[in-house]
Amino acid sequence: MKYILLALSFIALNANAIIIRHDVQETNYLAKPDDFPALATFYIDGAHGILISSKWILTAAHTTFCLNSGTKIKMSKGSATVKSLHIHPNHTPGISHDIALVELMGDVAHLPPATLYTRNDETGLPIWFIGIGGTGNGITGITVDNYENKGVLRKAQNRVEEAKGPILTFKFDKGEHALPLEGISGGGDSGGPAFIETERGYQVLGISSRYGGGPSEKYGSFEVYSRVSHFTPWIKEVMDKPDKAVSSGVSLDKLKHLPGGLKPSDLPALCPDILISHEALSK
C-alpha cells in the first residue's frame, strides 16, 4: 500500500483528476469502453495511452516510468505487451514535449485505432476526454482520487481554449459558457486523449499532460495537453524507423527525468504494486 499511495502522488501531480459540472448528474458522465475503443491503461489507478496503429500506442512521456519490454498493459478489450519505448528527447517535465510512443510486440488487430488530427485549426473545437481518474465537481474540487475511483470510466466535454506550438490548453467553464458535459481531466487520466468522433472514426487532438493553472480542481482551472498536430512529424519518423530512432537521437528509450522526485531505486518495489496483474488482465 505504501508504494501504491506513492505512485498515486506521482501520477496525479501533473494535473487534477476528472472534475465534472456540479449541476449535472454524475451518472451522465459514466462511459463505456466502446466510447473510445483505442484507450489503453497502464496502471491499476490510471495513466492511459491511445492505440494509433495495430502496433503503436501514443501517450504522455511522464506515464511510462514503469513500462519496460515485456510489460503487459490493458486495452479496452484484452491486453497487449510492450516491446519498446520511445520518449521525445526534448521532454521537459511540467513544461513541454510530454509525449512518448510505446511499440507493441504483436498486432492489436481486434480494436480500431484512433487517427492523428494533423490540421492546425484546433482552437475552439469541442472535444471529449475519457479516463479512469478520480472525480469531483467544479465547486468542491476533487472528492474521490484516482485510486479510490477503482477504475470507473468517465468521459467529459471541453473546448480547445488555445492551440499554440506543442500545447493545447483547456479551461473548465461554468454556466452559460459550459458544454452540457463540461469537465476537465488530469491525474489518473494522464496520457489519455482529447478526441473527436468523425464519420471515419476517432481522431486524437491531444494527450493529457498536466494542470495548467487557475483555481485548482475547480471552475476556472486550466488543463494542458500535448498537441498531436505539432508532434505528427516526430510520431511518423519514430514509427517509420523504430530500430534506428534511439541510436539516431530521434527518441530515448527511457525517461531522463522521473516524475515528481521519484528515484530509480523506488521502481523495483513500486512498479509491481501498480502494474495491472496478469490475473486482472485475463478477466
UniProtKB/TrEMBL annotation:
EC number(s) in its UniProt entry? Answer: 3.4.21.-
Annotated keywords: Disulfide bond, Hydrolase, Signal
Q: Which GO terms describe its molecular function?
A: hydrolase activity
Highest taxon of source: Bacteria
Enzyme class, top EC level, equals hydrolase
Leader sequence segment: 1-17
What are the residue boundaries of the Peptidase S1 domain, all occurrences included? 19-240
Name this polypeptide is given: Trypsin-like serine protease
